[in-house]
Amino acid sequence: MAESKSKAESIREWVIEHKLRTVGCLWLSGLAGSIAYNWSQPNMKTSVKIIHARLHAQALTLAALAGAAVVEWYDHKTGAKADRYAKFLPVDTYSHKE
C-alpha cells in the first residue's frame, strides 16, 4: 500500500509545479497586506501609502522569484525535473540517425 503524502509534501509539490502562480499569489497577498498595514498609519498621504505598498510587494516578489530560481536550479541539479518530464517525451522518437 502506498504511503499517503503529508500536507506539507503535497503543498511543496504544488508549489514546484506552479512556480509563477505561487509568485503571483505572493505578490497579491503582499500588496493587500501592505495596503492594509499602511492604511492604519494616519500620518501618511494616500499616494505615499500606495507607493509603500507597491515597494513592499515588489520586494516580496523579488524574494519569491529568487526562491523559485533556487527550486528550479535544485531540480536541474538533482535530475528531478528530467524524471518528471520523461513520461511525456518518448526517447526513441528523438534519437540521432547516422
Automatic annotation (TrEMBL):
The keyword Transmembrane helix applies. Pfam families: HIG_1_N. The keyword Membrane applies. GO terms for biological process: mitochondrial respiratory chain complex IV assembly. InterPro entries: Hypoxia_induced_domain, Rcf2. It comes from the Eukaryota. It is found in: Mitochondrion. Residues 1-83 form the HIG1 domain. GO terms for cellular component: mitochondrion. Keywords: Membrane, Transmembrane, Transmembrane helix. PANTHER family: F18C1.18 PROTEIN-RELATED, RESPIRATORY SUPERCOMPLEX FACTOR 2, MITOCHONDRIAL. This is HIG1 domain-containing protein. It comes from Carya illinoinensis.
